[in-house]
């Protein structure tokens, strides 16, 4: 990529030893450690914003940006989150994404900024005009979603984390519970090829 | 690991890392068996292009596409990219537009190709020549004439100003180009300064059938064009048509002449609001130096009403061409283009703002960026169908409709259409799209009522006009006594379904059902404004009150009934009317301070007492409480606003009421009446003609039509209208005195003056003023002020009474009416 490389493009083969465990941080937040909260936020806000910006149509994204819904949701979630450890960081990522999506939906409802009611009144934020759809087209996006849902949770996290949230492999290793960035890379590669196979069905 | 696996891993890594992939190379190395998998990976590679899409196309530039050699990218947009390319077989330069979604959304490509081929058949000097459209290597592309030049928008932005002659020539050529598109059975849909180029030889070229080409029918099409160029009907969700293209041409010509837009707005919501409230700059105001014929032609292209707009681009072309022949000034056209062509060096092909298929919003425009694409929610309650076998139950269904409509006014964020407009669709087949268009709503509440003794079955649905989708539906099998609870449940369900909230509590009073039925009958009587039916209504309201003394709407209705009875000649005296109105209106407010009708009735009472300021406050309060009850607004206008000289507020209110209640003849007539007071006779005529087109009882409108014709210098037509007796009533011949005088029909004038002597002074004033007898006019008015002050105050603002202006006796008369 000639420009706009992700800041983590280099050094991805380093083992994430320096990375504090997300769960350690959550634990510290629960004991009132502001610093830990800052670090948790720093780690998760960016990827979730990227994910949201790919998934929401632009009008909804603007609202999410304006009110900084991602940051706000994460703050609330981290402060009240219970014991997530046994389900792994990957499950946490999925949980956070759902929390953000729910929050955006709620906000839109409260502001009555609903899109025209065409689909039985349900707010389908992913419906039209999201950058992902612009890039892939509606049908391809649907096939992608369907194939994604047939993968294992680990495979799914690898793809969404790397491709949509643009995690570094070190971050991905933590999320997937892999020992190294390289192991995460291999897992993501396998997951992507599996996904392509699934899409071909 | 086979080389094949290595290749796949390589591709997968590149996708995961967002690094460029040379797909031609991948294809050449790929095992044929892996081709399908490679195709999927190629689709997946698009995932990474979504966020920071700017990089995606850079790395994805093909070196060849079919028989074209791709030279350089010259533009890109949401739809894909435009390249400069070389057509090798014919040895010529072309512009190649590659539609991005085609690779994945194979559904879209046939229609894109088909429309491209239709466009390719158009051969017109002012339309860019499309050479062909194909799907090659999974990408749909169009190749076309490569134009070197500037768009009109660039020229404007670089400071060029266009003279009237230049604009007319641009208009004539553009209309010719658009006509050619229409003749091919296509609608352009995106005519704007960015899509019209002037090439190096000052030839005008219409470009970019972007939206016309790429958008298929479906949701979102309404807002696909550049919003400031959109016609109001398209903005309101209507389909793009030949006439909406004509409107866009009008906007473009306006823009070239003024560097501004006829309707300005910050965002899409604001634009809709500005259109709805008729906020537009006329060309004559913005450029008073333009010749009237040219200005008129452009204004007519810009007319919000399609029935007044040119029906085709060809008609607009003809009007502009003939206007330019009349124009004394002729200058070299395209001077600006010549200058800029020298400065040129910029290679440009338009078409950068197009949208991909299926994408709803025109996000490329700053106007829309950040705006909410959703339309304002506008709703109408269609008359509930009466499925009962008993013949006298129709008003029950009507009453239910009315109550549900009333309850919906309590919902925040919902524009409600008046029941009098939805009532027009009572016995019509259920055609959601048509009704939605006529009432300009995107939501409808429909339902049915079935009564069997005291057993009640009510069904209700909330329907989205777009696609006729039922959003919510419920059936209630209850007893008659629960009818109010059902009404509440329906409105709450609608609010909940739309994620809206109730602004205020729903009314708590509930009369016994039989009483309620009586109330509905009384209301029905009040709709036909005749003395005898008003008297009957008053009697019924009295009965309702006797049976339920706490039912506020009945008191308001009673006050209204007395107001009508004491307005007519002959009728109740105004003093007697007032004596009965006031306690009823006061009681209504006491019982329900939030009832709009109660404040409307109080407004009528104050106005009858000539307490103009209190009347104004009461009416304004009523309108705030329920803007959908347009009878309150017409009452306000004819009882207070016109008398006190606030004709601009009257027109503003009634124009807004016409949005709420688009089918209402009463609102349109009173608007026309107010426009006559304002001296805007042509506008009045236009509204009256629209009213007459739908009026089964045309006498009332015809009288106003005759008046407007008289004062706009066409007394002959006014008299002809009256002489066609089927369309008139003998009673209003005296109004024609003003026309007879203008026509010099002395015998008719003398006859009317003679028969006038013994008439009601109010009517005498009308005839004496026509013959210019100021003394007798004043004498008659002076008497009329005592007999019916409020109505006389209205008479005095009419153009028939213009002879009073400046007379020293006028201030004293006005003082008696408590007017300043």
Describe this structure in words.
The complex is a heterodimer of chains A (201) and B (820). Chain A contains ten helices and no strands. Chain A is mainly α. The longest helix of chain A is centred in the middle third of the chain and has 23 residues, at 88-110. Chain A is flat and about 50 Å long. With 820 residues, chain B is an alpha+beta fold. Chain B has 37 helices and 15 strands. In chain B, strands 1-2-3-4-6-5 form a six-stranded antiparallel beta sheet. In chain B, strand 13 and strand 14 (455-464) form a beta hairpin. The longest helix of chain B has 20 residues, at 164-183. At the A-B interface, helix 2, helix 3, helix 6, helix 7 and helix 8 of A face helix 1, helix 3, helix 4 and strand 15 of B.
Q: In a few lines, what is going on in this structure?
A:
Chain A has 201 residues and is mostly helical.
Count of β-strands of chain A: 0
- Report on the biggest sheet of chain A: none
Helical region count of chain B? 37
Identify the overall geometry of chain B: flat
Could you report the average pLDDT of chain A, rounded to the nearest whole number? 70
Note the overall shape of chain A. flat
Our Rg estimate of chain A from Cα atoms comes to 17 Å
Output the number of helix runs of chain A.
10
β-strand percent of chain B reads: 5-15%
Quaternary state of this entry equals heterodimer
Mean pLDDT of chain B equals: 79
First-last Cα distance of chain B: 99 Å
């Amino acid at each position: 990529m000639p420009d706009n490389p992700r800041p983590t493009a280099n050094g991805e083969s380093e083992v994430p030893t320096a990375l504090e465990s997300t769960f350690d941080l959550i634990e510290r937040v629960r004991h009132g450690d502001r610093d830990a909260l800052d670090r948790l936020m720093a780690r998760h806000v960016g990827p979730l914003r990227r994910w949201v910006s790919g998934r929401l149509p632009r009008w909804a994204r603007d609202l999410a940006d304006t009110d900084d819904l991602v940051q706000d949701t994460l703050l609330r979630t981290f402060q009240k989150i219970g014991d997530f450890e046994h389900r792994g960081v990957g499950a946490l990522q999925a949980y956070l994404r759902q929390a953000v999506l729910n929050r955006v939906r709620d906000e839109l409802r409260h502001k009555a900024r609903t899109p025209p009611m065409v689909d039985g009144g349900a707010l389908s934020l992913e419906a039209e005009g999201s950058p992902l759809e612009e890039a892939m087209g509606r049908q391809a996006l649907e096939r992608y979603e369907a194939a994604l849902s047939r993968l294992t949770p680990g495979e799914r996290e690898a793809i969404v984390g790397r491709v949509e949230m643009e995690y570094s492999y070190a971050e991905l290793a933590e999320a997937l519970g892999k020992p190294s960035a390289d192991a995460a890379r291999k897992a993501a590669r396998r997951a992507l090829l599996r996904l392509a196979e699934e899409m071909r069905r | 690991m086979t080389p094949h696996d290595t290749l796949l891993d390589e591709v997968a890594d590149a996708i995961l890392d967002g690094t460029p992939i040379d797909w031609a190379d991948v294809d050449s190395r790929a095992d044929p068996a892996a081709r399908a998998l490679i195709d999927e990976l190629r689709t997946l590679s698009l995932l990474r292009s979504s966020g920071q899409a700017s990089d995606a196309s850079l790395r994805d530039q093909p070196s060849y596409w079919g028989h074209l050699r791709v030279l350089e990218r010259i533009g890109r947009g949401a739809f894909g990219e435009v390249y400069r390319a070389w057509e090798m077989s014919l040895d010529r330069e072309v512009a190649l537009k590659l539609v991005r979604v085609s690779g994945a959304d194979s559904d879209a490509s046939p229609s894109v190709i088909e429309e491209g081929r239709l466009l390719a058949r158009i051969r017109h000097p002012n339309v860019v020549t499309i050479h062909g459209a194909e799907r090659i290597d999974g990408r749909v592309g169009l190749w076309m004439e490569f134009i070197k030049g500037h768009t009109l928008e660039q020229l404007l932005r670089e400071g060029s100003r266009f003279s009237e002659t230049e604009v007319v020539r641009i208009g004539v050529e553009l209309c010719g180009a658009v006509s050619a598109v229409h003749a091919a059975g296509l609608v352009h849909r995106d005519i704007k300064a960015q899509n019209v180029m002037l090439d190096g030889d000052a030839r005008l070229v219409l470009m970019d059938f972007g939206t016309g080409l790429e958008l298929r029918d479906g949701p979102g099409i309404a807002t696909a064009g550049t919003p400031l160029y959109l016609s109001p009907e398209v903005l309101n969700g209507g389909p793009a048509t030949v006439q909406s293209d004509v409107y866009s041409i009008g906007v473009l010509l306006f823009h070239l002449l003024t560097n501004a837009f006829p309707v300005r707005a910050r965002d899409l919501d604001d634009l809709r609001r500005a259109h709805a409230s008729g906020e537009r700059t006329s060309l004559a105001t913005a450029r008073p130096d333009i010749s009237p014929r040219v200005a008129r032609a452009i204004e007519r292209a810009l007319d919000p009403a399609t029935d007044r707009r040119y029906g085709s681009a060809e008609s607009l072309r003809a009007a502009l061409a003939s206007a330019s022949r009349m124009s004394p000034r002729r200058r070299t056209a395209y001077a600006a283009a010549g200058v800029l062509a020298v400065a040129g060096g910029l290679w440009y092909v338009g078409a950068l703002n197009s949208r991909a298929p299926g994408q709803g919003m025109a996000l490329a425009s700053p106007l829309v960026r950040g705006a909410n694409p959703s339309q304002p929610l506008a709703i109408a309650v269609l008359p509930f169908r009466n499925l009962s076998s008993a013949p006298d139950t129709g008003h029950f269904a009507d009453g239910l409709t009315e109550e549900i409509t009333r309850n919906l006014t309590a919902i925040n964020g919902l524009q409600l259409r008046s029941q009098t407009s939805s009532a027009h669709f009572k016995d019509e087949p259920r055609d959601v799209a048509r009704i939605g268009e006529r009432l300009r709503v995107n939501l409808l509440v429909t339902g049915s009522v079935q009564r069997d003794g005291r057993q009640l079955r009510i069904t209700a649905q909330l329907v989205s006009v777009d696609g006729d989708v039922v959003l919510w539906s419920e059936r209630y099998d209850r007893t008659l006594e629960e009818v109010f609870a059902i009404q509440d449940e329906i409105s709450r369900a609608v609010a909940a379904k739309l994620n809206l909230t109730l602004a205020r509590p729903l009314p708590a009073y509930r009369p016994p059902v039989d009483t309620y039925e009586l109330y509905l009958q009384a209301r029905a009587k009040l709709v036909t404004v005749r003395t005898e039916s008003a008297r009957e209504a008053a009697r019924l309201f009295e009965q309702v009150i006797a049976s339920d003394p706490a039912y506020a709407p009945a008191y308001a209705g009673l006050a209204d009934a007395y107001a009508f009875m004491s307005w007519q000649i002959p009728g109740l005296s105004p003093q007697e009317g007032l004596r009965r109105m006031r306690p009823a209106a006061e009681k209504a407010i006491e019982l329900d301070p939030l009832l709009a009708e109660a404040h409307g009735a109080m407004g009528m009472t104050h106005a009858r007492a000539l307490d103009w300021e209190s009347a104004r406050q009461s009416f304004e309060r009523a309108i705030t409480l329920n803007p959908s009850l347009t009878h309150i607004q017409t009452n306000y206008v004819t009882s207070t606003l016109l008398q006190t000289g606030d004709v601009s507020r009257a027109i503003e209110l009634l124009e807004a009421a016409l949005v709420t209640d688009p089918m209402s003849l009463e609102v349109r007539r009173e608007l026309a009446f107010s426009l006559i007071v304002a001296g805007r006779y042509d506008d009045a005529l236009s509204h009256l003609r629209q009213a007459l087109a739908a009026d089964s009882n045309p006498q009332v409108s015809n009288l106003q039509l005759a008046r407007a014709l008289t004062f706009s210098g066409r007394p002959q037509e006014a008299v002809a209208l009256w002489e066609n007796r089927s369309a008139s009533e003998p009673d209003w011949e005296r109004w024609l005195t003003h026309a007879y005088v203008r026509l010099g029909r002395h015998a008719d004038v003398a006859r009317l003056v003679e028969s006038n002597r013994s008439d009601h002074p109010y009517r005498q004033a009308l005839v004496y003023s026509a013959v210019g007898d100021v003394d007798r006019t004043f004498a008659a008015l002076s008497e009329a002020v005592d007999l019916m002050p409020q109505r006389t105050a209205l008479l005095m603002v009419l153009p028939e009474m213009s002879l009073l202006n400046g007379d020293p006796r006028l201030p004293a008369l006005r003082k008696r009416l408590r007017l300043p």
